[in-house]
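ESCALATION

Customer reports they have been waiting on this structure for their group meeting. Please prioritize. Original submission:
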Amino acid sequence: MKPGQSLWTREELILAINLYCKLPFGKMHKTNPLIIELSELIGRTPSSITLKLGNFASFDPTLKARGIRGATNASKLDKAIWDEFYDNWDEALFLSENLFAQKKNSTIEKINKIDFENLPHDGKEKERLIKIRVNQALFRNVVLATYNQKCCITGIQQRELLIASHIIPWSKDDKNRLNPMNGLCLNALHDKAFDTGLIGIRPDDYTIVLSKQLKQQKNDNASFEMNFLSFENKAILLPDKFLPQPEFLNYHMKNIFRQ
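Update from on-call: job pushed to the front of the queue and completed.
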């Protein structure tokens, strides 16, 4: 450690990994406004935060698979924080977002722009619904950042048309609702097709498969060719971190995809 430097605290690391989840790997540089914002909140330089994000990158299996090593000076506490997130996304990510909101003297609902309309006025049901909406907003932000704001099938980048789609549905796995490796960034049309099992993604090579039911509908028009047939057997655009887990895609192929 250089003279004048202080050890990173657990709280600072939790805030740093929260930011790691929200940034595309290629935008983890000291001039990024989000890195500058965090530096001002915790009293660290943008350069030091960028280096810490590189430490987390050294643990990311997706980056390792792409031959990207990340930083080489990660601490034991860095690894411990990473493991906490990797083993328990739903709790760890939510708690880190709550800590970030506190640092901003705000609330987790406000920083995620939660719509309070059509909610009960009070009580546990209201709290439950607010938490669901926060989790959905948080999952969306992380997944869209993971895919660099692009639909993984078409490459569309219009944010209003993009959806953070769960591979294993929200209702089927309460332990991986916020796990970014259980997410795909899809445009609204292909999200609906994936959600209803009309299309799937092979877990071994990430290529797109069309269901027989979809292909047998005699959709012999230019729109069907452009939106579906043209993507058949082509690989999705893979994220630069948090690669979709094959076991999740395998679940979708076996339980949701219409053979």
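Sent to customer with the following note: The longest helix spans residues 124-146.
Escalation resolved.
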